Amino acid sequence: MSAPAIAPATVVDGAVRDDDLLRIEAVDGGHGSTAVLFGVSLGVPRNGLCCLMGRNGVGKSTLMSTIVGLLRARRGRIVLDGEDVTKLKPYERARAGIAFVPQGRDCFPQLTVMENLRVVQEARRDLDRGAIDEALDLFPRLRGLLDRPAGFLSGGQMQQLAIARALVTRPKLLLLDEPTEGIQPSIILEIEDAIAQLKRSAGLSILLVEQYVDFALRLAERYAVMDAGRVIDAGETAALEDGHVRRLLAV
Ligand SMILES: Nc1ncnc2c1ncn2[C@@H]1O[C@H](COP(=O)(O)OP(=O)(O)OP(=O)(O)O)[C@@H](O)[C@H]1O
């Protein structure tokens, strides 16, 4: 049987702009022999937030892993602040300014909150102690928990620690994969405040994967919706009609 023809990438209007900090251009990718992403083009504005939405299994986490280099892009380009990072290793992309908070939060459960932060700092000699203080300023709740092992934190506290760990690297781009998942509403508000504050602080752009549509749209300037490994709609949130994204997600 002959291989199926590869469809040309279709770029949805408004998905990516020339001056975006992160430009994902016509990327194909997946897991081993399983193709998941098909010609994905998407941009994250400078000092802005793009929320990426879509039902379970459409490829959002696969795209995040491809951006940080845990999975290889089979076709297309990933450009960060004008630098083509498509072929860089994950640690090289981290040094180029990409930080990732995966689903599941990825902290060391036996280490205390402070040790979790120091591990990141000590792995990177270019980082100074001030970076930890700045990250803690954003999440004051963590200051009272510095000696507590991360495994004894609540889900919301753990999420705050995971974001703080990412910020210790002083990234240009922060990738957040479903930060509200399984978290109580009061802590979701704290996380929303922290993300809003991060956006205001100069130099940070955020790609947020989120199923909680209201949370995502309150924070975002740009949105994109994926279905079956493709971006099917994207644009400025300011121009969104009420209910438009929900209708797409219900497809
Ligand atoms: N390690 C893996 N090996 C093979 N296939 C995988 C692997 N991880 C995910 N997939 C498949 O890739 C597709 C996209 O999954 P992905 O996790 O990227 O979707 P998602 O949109 O992030 O969904 P969710 O919101 O449930 O996390 C799914 O069909 C999934 O089964």
How would you describe this protein?
- With 251 residues, the protein is an alpha/beta fold.
- Helix content is 33%, strand content 25%.
- It has helices spanning 60-68, 90-96, 113-123, 130-138, 140-143, 155-167, 185-200, 213-219, 244-249; strands spanning 22-31, 34-44, 49-53, 73-80, 83-84, 98-101, 173-177, 205-209, 222-227, 230-236.
- A hairpin with a 2-residue loop joins strand 1 and strand 2 (34-44).
- The relative contact order is 0.18.
- The mean pLDDT is 89.
- The structure holds adenosine-5'-triphosphate.
- Adenosine-5'-triphosphate (ATP) is lined by residues 31, 34, 36, 54, 56-62.
Summarize the structure.
The chain is α/β, with parallel strands linked by helices and 251 residues long.
Topology:
Layout lengths: L21 E10 L2 E11 L4 E5 L6 H9 L4 E8 L2 E2 L5 H7 L1 E4 L11 H11 L6 H9 L1 H4 L11 H13 L5 E5 L7 H16 L4 E5 L3 H7 L2 E6 L2 E7 L7 H6 L2
Parallel strand pairs: 3-8, 3-9, 6-7, 7-8
Antiparallel strand pairs: 1-2, 1-4, 4-5, 9-10
Helix pairs in contact: 3-6, 4-6
Strand order of the largest sheet: 6-7-8-3-9-10
Under CATH, the homologous superfamily of the domain at 1-93 and 211-251 reads P-loop containing nucleotide triphosphate hydrolases
Main β sheet profile: 6 strands, mixed
Bound ions, cofactors and other small molecules, one mention each: adenosine-5'-triphosphate
* Unreliable runs: none
* SS class: alpha/beta
Terminal CA distance: 32 Å
Helices and strands, in N-to-C order? EEEHEEHEHHHHEHEHEEH
CATH architecture of the domain at 1-93 and 211-251: 3-Layer(aba) Sandwich
Measured on Cα atoms, how large is the radius of gyration? 18 Å
Helix content: 25-40%
Question: How many β-strand runs?
Answer: 10
On the 0 to 100 scale, the average pLDDT is 89
Shape: globular
CATH topology of the domain at 1-93 and 211-251: Rossmann fold
The number of helical runs is 9
- The CATH class label of the domain at 1-93 and 211-251 is Alpha Beta
